[in-house]
Every structure is written in C-alpha cells, then in structure tokens.
Amino acid sequence: MATERTLSIIKPDATRRNLTGKINAKFEEAGLRIVAQKRIHLSPAQAGQFYIVHKDRPFYGELVEFMASEPVVVQVLEGDNAIATNREVMGATNPADAAAGTIRKEFALSVGENSVHGSDAPETAREEIAFFFSGLELVG
Ligand code: RTP
Ligand code: MG
Question: pTM value?
C-alpha cells in the first residue's frame, strides 16, 4: 500500500457543534496521521473557488454559502491509501446512506451539512492541499 496525503475539511456544521476532536479521533483510529491543520473562515469567493467543479450543480450556491457561514478546520491526513481510507471513514455523501460508525452517519445533519470533505483522487488531493497549505506547513 502506498503512503498518500489527502485534504480534509471539517465543515461548519461540525465546528459549530464542537465535534472537531471526535472527528479527529475517527481519523486517527483509522490510521490517518494529521500532518497539518488550521482553523480558518472562508470568504464566499474562496469557498466558491474551492468547489468550482460543482459550479453548474443546483446545490452550488447553497454549498458555497454554507462553507463560508462559519469557520472550518482544514487539514492534511497522511497514511496508507489515505484518500480511500478517509472516504471510508467519512461515509456516503448523504448520511441516510452512510454506513454505521462513519463520521457522516454519526454526525452529519443532512446531505448538504455533512460534517466533512475529503479529496476524491490523487490529482484533486494535490490541488486541494496546495489550495490551503504551503510546503513549509506540511510536517510529515
Ligand atoms: P465532499 O466533496 O464535500 O467531500 O463530498 P462528496 O465528494 O461526498 O460529495 P460531492 O458530490 O463532491 O458534493 C460536494 C458537497 O456538496 C454538497 N451537496 N449537497 N443538496 C445536495 O443534493 C447536495 N449534494 C451535494 C455536500 O456538502 C457534498 O459533500
Ligand atoms: Mg467531492
């Protein structure tokens, strides 16, 4: 298995409810190491740029407004097959479809306010990590 890095975001619905520690515990229990982490408040323009791939989807406006509504915690997770491992721990996008024990099953409020983001492929992981972190901030 290859060591990978992925970009994770703890979304506003979760930071608001003080769930950062519980969510981080799930990542660490799954063998993912948090190699960088910071709390930021995205502007609507920054949130819109981050999710630009979804610009033509009907939920784009709502998603951007939500992501800029309150602070988020952005982080880089490292581990064996980190991208897939992280998405497994996150669970399905819609919490109604998420498996027992996943973050979204336990904590998500709805398909939109679903507590976490995770990169979906190596190329997007590289882009998304570079969007938030400089090389100096990444301590392996
Ligand atoms: P993410 O990118 O946040 O890790 O989530 P994902 O891959 O599981 O889902 P994706 O299809 O990339 O959608 C991005 C985010 O948009 C919101 N969404 N809302 N109202 C809706 O039907 C709807 N569908 C998606 C969610 O916050 C989702 O995580
Ligand atoms: Mg996605």
Answer: 0.96
Q: How far is CA 59 from CA 35, 52, 62, in A?
A: 31, 12, 5
Q: Is 105 within any annotated ligand binding site? A: no
53 CA distance to ligand 2 centroid (A)? 9
- Which ligand is nearest to the Cα of residue 64, counting in written order? 1
For tokens 């979906």, name the residue: 120
State how far the Cα of 116 lies from the Cα of 14, in Å rounded to an integer: 8
Topology of the domain covering 3-40+71-137: Alpha-Beta Plaits (3.30.70)
- ipTM of model: 0.94
**Does 59 carry a binding-site annotation?**
yes
